[in-house]
């Protein structure tokens, strides 16, 4: 007897197989982690069995999927999204928003950016605004933010953007493209995949995700030549630890630190000139 394959189950099964492949997890390993039989998991992937809502969430947790992907997996199985996606300005996220503002304010006189999933700049402190103003003309900023929110990657890669001030551009571009490639490979269809197609050179686009990229070391210096002198910075990346909201999970806090005393003095001088307490 031929077992019937349900359309909704088939869609879920296809998505599940794709994520399991991306995570490079065998059916047996996933079955053990999700506490189900391998036979049942095989039936789920082939569309011969329909998962419960709880089963979808258990499998998504075992695969350590992003919250957005967990919602998409639920929807492919015919269930409503489980994790909310609120605007950062929503009352429910007020505490998180205030925490972000406090973090970047306390980082003065060093630059800090809050970026979302699209790499759009959601928040900055005064130091970040001063850095942009000294590296990119107001006309270019206006051009890049005329129709869409100001995007960190586009601001950096624009020929008249931050790129024009970076003395070690080839190295920095390689690091940023590596980040986009890793995120695109780990989350197909994400904004990072679109930005990778837009910003990578033809040679970089041909690189497979398995090819070795430049390391994402926080100690790689961003070397900027400003009108006031040289500035050498390294960045750290911070995210929320245990988010239960899609928006919060996808936020990243990019904080820059001076790598030498001359850079520290320059940032402090900019802050003092702006009346910022350092």
Descriptive tags:
2 domains; 11% strand; disordered N terminus; Beta-Lactamase; alpha+beta; 278 residues
Protein architecture, described:
By secondary structure, the chain is an alpha+beta fold. It has two domains: 7-76, lambda repressor-like DNA-binding domains (434 Repressor (Amino-terminal Domain)), CATH 1.10.260.40; 91-168 and 221-273, Beta-Lactamase, CATH 3.30.450.180. It contains 14 helices and five strands. The chain has helices at residues 7-23, 27-34, 38-46, 53-62, 67-76, 94-106, 126-135, 138-144, 152-157, 169-186, 191-199, 202-205, 246-250, 261-273, and strands at 112-115, 121-124, 222-226, 229-238, 252-258. A five-stranded antiparallel sheet has the order 2-1-5-4-3, with helices on both faces. The protein starts with 6 loop residues before the first helix and ends in a 5-residue tail after the last helix.
- Predict the CATH topology of the largest domain: Beta-Lactamase
* Share of β-strand residues: 5-15%
Regarding quaternary structure, what we see is: single chain
Low-pLDDT ranges: 1-7
Number of strands: 5
Q: Give the N-terminus to C-terminus distance in angstroms.
A: 76 Å
Task: Summarize the model shown.
With 278 residues, the protein is an alpha+beta fold. It has helices spanning 7-23, 27-34, 38-46, 53-62, 67-76, 94-106, 126-135, 138-144, 152-157, 169-186, 191-199, 202-205, 246-250, 261-273; strands spanning 112-115, 121-124, 222-226, 229-238, 252-258.
């Amino acid at each position: 007897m031929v077992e019937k394959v349900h359309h909704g189950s088939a869609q879920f099964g296809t998505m599940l197989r794709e994520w399991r492949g991306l995570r490079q997890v065998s059916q047996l390993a996933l079955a053990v982690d999700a506490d189900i039989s391998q036979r049942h998991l095989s039936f789920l992937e082939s569309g011969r069995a329909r998962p419960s809502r709880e089963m979808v969430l258990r499998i998504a947790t075992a695969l350590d999927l992003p919250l957005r992907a967990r919602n998409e997996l639920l929807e492919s199985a015919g269930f409503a999204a489980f994790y909310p996606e609120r605007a950062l300005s929503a009352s429910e996220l007020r505490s998180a928003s205030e925490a972000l503002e406090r973090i970047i304010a306390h980082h003065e006189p060093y630059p800090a950016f809050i970026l979302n999933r699209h790499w759009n700049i959601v928040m900055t402190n005064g130091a970040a605004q001063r850095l942009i103003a000294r590296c990119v003309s107001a006309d270019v900023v206006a051009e890049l933010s005329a129709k869409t929110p100001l995007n960190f990657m586009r601001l950096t890669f624009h020929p008249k953007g931050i790129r024009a001030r970076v003395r070690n551009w080839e190295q920095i571009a390689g690091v940023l493209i590596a980040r986009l490639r890793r995120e695109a490979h780990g989350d197909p269809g994400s904004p990072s995949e679109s930005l990778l197609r837009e910003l990578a050179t033809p040679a970089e686009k041909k690189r497979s995700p398995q090819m070795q990229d430049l390391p994402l070391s926080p100690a790689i210096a961003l070397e900027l030549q400003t009108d006031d002198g040289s500035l050498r910075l390294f960045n750290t990346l911070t995210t929320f630890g245990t988010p239960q909201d899609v928006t919060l999970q996808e936020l990243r806090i990019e904080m820059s630190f001076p790598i030498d005393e001359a850079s520290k003095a320059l940032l402090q001088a900019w802050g003092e000139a702006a009346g910022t307490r350092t």
